[in-house]
Amino acid sequence: MNLPEAGALLAAECARYTELGWMRGTSGNLSVRLSDDPLRLAVTASGLDKGELTASDVVEIDATGAPVSEGALAPSAEAGLHGRIAAVSGAGAVVHVHVLAPVLAAERWPGGVELRDLEMLKGFGRAAHDDLVTIPVVRNSQDMQALGDAFEAGWRADTPALIVARHGLYVWGSDLRQARHRTECLEWLTRFIIEA
Ligand SMILES: CSCCC(=O)C(=O)COP(=O)(O)O
Ligand SMILES: [Zn+2]
């Protein structure tokens, strides 16, 4: 996939999340893998209304989140965490949304949000009757190295999500569609345990 193709996909995907109310204001950011070796991602540009992106509102970054070339647009302020997640997990796409339920769940269970015996776990890539699925929670930081270290310390290959406390949700998958399906299911799951 080249950068303009990735940009068109990311813009369309952001519009869907905005419709759901999960990218309020200028919140949220998405990335998709462009190449493996060296690792390159297309990430949404920083500070824009994510519901109004065009195919050119993306930036090519390396595994550290740094732009690979000079350009007018800055990559997402959270590009470094996208790069780290993609590098560690092998994900093809990473979603970050400011959806409320996971953040509320992390406020209630700051040591990790536990889910068990719920059919929607299947949509998250787990069995409905898995013993226990724990979504890791990390403290918020403006330092992407610190956030990346915290992510990596709690990372498990079978749990493609991370909640950043008082901030938002990260979910990843093999491509943008799988990451979206997982995000939608995890939003349902965390809303369920909050409301239950
Ligand atoms: C009101 S959004 C604050 C920044 C943030 O958390 C976010 O997700 C958007 O940052 P970006 O640099 O990707 O626009
Ligand atoms: Zn954010």
TrEMBL record:
Reaction catalyzed: 5-(methylsulfanyl)-D-ribulose 1-phosphate = 5-methylsulfanyl-2,3-dioxopentyl phosphate + H2O
**Names of required cofactors:** Zn(2+)
Residues bound to Zn(2+):
H96, H98
The record's SUPFAM superfamilies line, in alphabetical order, gives: AraD/HMP-PK domain-like
Please indicate if the UniProt record lists Lyase as a keyword: yes
Keyword Magnesium on entry: no
GO BP, sorted A to Z = L-methionine salvage from methylthioadenosine
Highest taxon of source: Bacteria
Record SMART domains: Aldolase_II
Biological pathway: Amino-acid biosynthesis; L-methionine biosynthesis via salvage pathway; L-methionine from S-methyl-5-thio-alpha-D-ribose 1-phosphate: step 2/6
Function recorded in the entry: Catalyzes the dehydration of methylthioribulose-1-phosphate (MTRu-1-P) into 2,3-diketo-5-methylthiopentyl-1-phosphate (DK-MTP-1-P).
Record-given protein name: Methylthioribulose-1-phosphate dehydratase
The source organism is Kibdelosporangium phytohabitans
